[in-house]
Give the backbone structure.
Amino acid sequence: MERLTITTTPIEGQKPGTSGLRKKTRIFMQPHYLENFVQAIWNGIGGVQGKTLVLGGDGRYFNDRAAQVILRMAAAGGAERVIVGQGALLSTPAASNLIRQRGADGGVIMSASHNPGGPDEDFGVKFNMSNGGPAPEDVTARMFEATKTLTEYHIVQTHDVDLDTLGESQMGDMIVEVVDPVADYATLMADLFDFDAIKALFAGGFTMCFDAMHAITGPYATAILEDTLGAAPGTVINAVPSPDFGGGHPDPNPIWAKTLMDLMMGNAAPDFGAASDGDGDRNMIVGKGCYVTPSDSLAVLAANAHLAPGYKDGLAGVARSMPTSGAVDRVAEKLGIGSYETPTGWKFFGNLLDAGRATLCGEESAGTGSDHVREKDGLWAVLLWLNILAVRNQSVLAVMQDHWGEYGRNYYSRHDYEAIDSAAANSLMQGLRDKLAHLPGQTVAGLVISAADEFAYDDPVDGSRSEGQGIRILFEGGARVVMRLSGTGTEGATLRVYLEWFSADDFGKDPQQALSSVIEAADTLAGIRDLTGRTAPDVIT
Ligand code: G6P
Ligand code: ZN
């Protein structure tokens, strides 16, 4: 087998974002594009000589081709073994688990998460470290530096490896081990949750609809919910992963999972609804006639986690990203445990989880997880909810009402303005930044501003500092507006406006109504309509 050294030149724009490098698939398919980036990953982590890696992806278009390239480059780099999910498939949380279970040195995950897939849609590649978590900023910075100076990459010349058959094969000196993508993950879930209680719940006639959105969780959810826990056949819908996710947008929110939302709001609603995204790390939870915002879901899980065997001794602490509502902070306060506020991006939870400071983490962007892996985990959240419902023997709505009754309600919504002009987005943010110092004390839309700043995070574990992590404006009484530009978009800029309003005793309002003055304040302060030319958000979650 010949090891080739291919001459190349740096390709601009290969900067890993919130979650690896995401680009249009056709960009990734250009000559040298993927190869350059993979070589930059190897260079950024000090090479792969003698290392064991995990490889898998969410099955989107180009997943299979990219897997072969990455394997050939791992072999050229001298890797000892690559553990690949059958069919080059692995959900992100399952990849994280596999890295940890097998003591691998890291892993490459091929996914653009919740972004659509297909030749004209998105592809992505990210690297996770030996703790199973996304590469931290210093490592991704080294990868980016490497992309800027690359002059060659190494790849072996060989035929495709069969990734459909379980077992080991050789690629030169490197072992390619094809494993069942579901098995280890399913074992972990059975350790954490009271499967007997959930089985009894389903046996008692409890009904559920899990929308896998034609993405990676289909096989996982079918194996665990239907085959193991006894949910009725057909509980999992859109269960077969497809390269373009059935033409859909695999993002589990009320907009993109509209079919499920309509079902849950209608007369024929099952007891419980859930969905997960392209690579299986996000989740949406919805009860009969009751959508649960991700921020509330995190708070409910924190308050009830002790009902599941894996968390029976309680939580060490909780962490949320800054734009996520403060609902979980109220739970932490009552439990007397630590709570942390981090920048957006799961990678910021890694140190807190590794150091045992936080057990549960979550983000408003539909991510929840715990220290069982180092990624957010969609199906895990669904199973923890099921465990809680089984033990409490209550509907989702009743759980929510009890929760708000005890802690108050943080009304919450996010308004997204997608694919807006980047220059306009940057000047909107700069305009806000420039006036932050003068805002406290001013009244906007009837709300008095108590504080305004641009969020910076000092990691309590490694002392690193991350600046420019979103602008937040706090109002007297607990309302808040946060604005930041998305770090995961692939077209123009996406402005995210996060809105929050707290009530200690009024739980029955429609969130958009409850938030109306906060929404007005956001527009007045940032001039969203004027600067973006948009009259309404593209997506409201
Ligand atoms: C990915 C990351 C999340 C993060 C989200 C936000 O899903 O894994 O940790 O919360 O992106 O992305 P944004 O587009 O708001 O930067
Ligand atoms: Zn995802």
About this structure: The chain has 18 helices and 27 strands. The domain at 185-407 is CATH 3.40.120.10 (Alpha-D-Glucose-1,6-Bisphosphate; Chain A, domain 3). The chain has three domains: 2-181, 185-407, 409-540.
